[in-house]
């Protein structure tokens, strides 16, 4: 699949939205309450998906949307990395997460509370999925998606030279 093809960007969008769907399954079917950092990681996946869709639709602005998708991925990587550091050292958290009020005050938490409302603690231990914590999986997928976008951008730029 070429790095400048619609299918390339559509696949990235499908994976991103699929991962948000899995997070919603864990929340609504398994009863795992998302913490503020989980919600912020959802924002990153949604942004990657939306920007990838826009890249698939727009020929002339494809580089812009791809760059914004990559930037969203980098932000998500930072949040997921911080989340993992809190899980490794739970004493670093004060118990009451100050980010929760900020995340829940965003318009998205009021419009789509089923997706973007935070009600859990960032240091709450959740059962791992295939031996890896949920923030660990989030970090892995954010790195993969951002890396795929970056490689695609580099390959496309080389082809234009």
Automatic annotation (TrEMBL):
Q: Cystine bridges: which residues?
A: 35-38
Q: How does it sit in the membrane?
A: Multi-pass membrane protein
Q: Name one GO biological process term.
A: protein folding
Q: Where are the transmembrane segments?
A: 7-27, 39-57, 64-84, 134-154
Specify whether Plastid is a keyword of the entry: no
Residue intervals on the Cytoplasmic side: 1-8, 156-161
Residues assigned to the Periplasmic compartment are: 26-43, 82-136
**One Pfam family, short name:** DsbB
Task: Tell me which GO cellular component terms the UniProt record holds.
Answer: plasma membrane
Places the protein is found: Cell inner membrane; Cell membrane
The alphabetized UniProt keywords are: Cell inner membrane, Cell membrane, Chaperone, Disulfide bond, Electron transport, Membrane, Oxidoreductase, Redox-active center, Transmembrane, Transmembrane helix, Transport
- Please name the GO terms that the record assigns under molecular function: electron transfer activity; protein-disulfide reductase activity
Q: Which NCBIfam families match?
A: PRK02110.1
Function summary: Required for disulfide bond formation in some periplasmic proteins. Acts by oxidizing the DsbA protein.
Which PANTHER family does the UniProt entry name for this protein? Answer: DISULFIDE BOND FORMATION PROTEIN B (PTHR36570)
Q: Give the family this protein belongs to, as stated in its UniProt record.
A: Belongs to the DsbB family.
HAMAP family, sorted = DsbB
What protein does this entry describe? Answer: Disulfide bond formation protein B
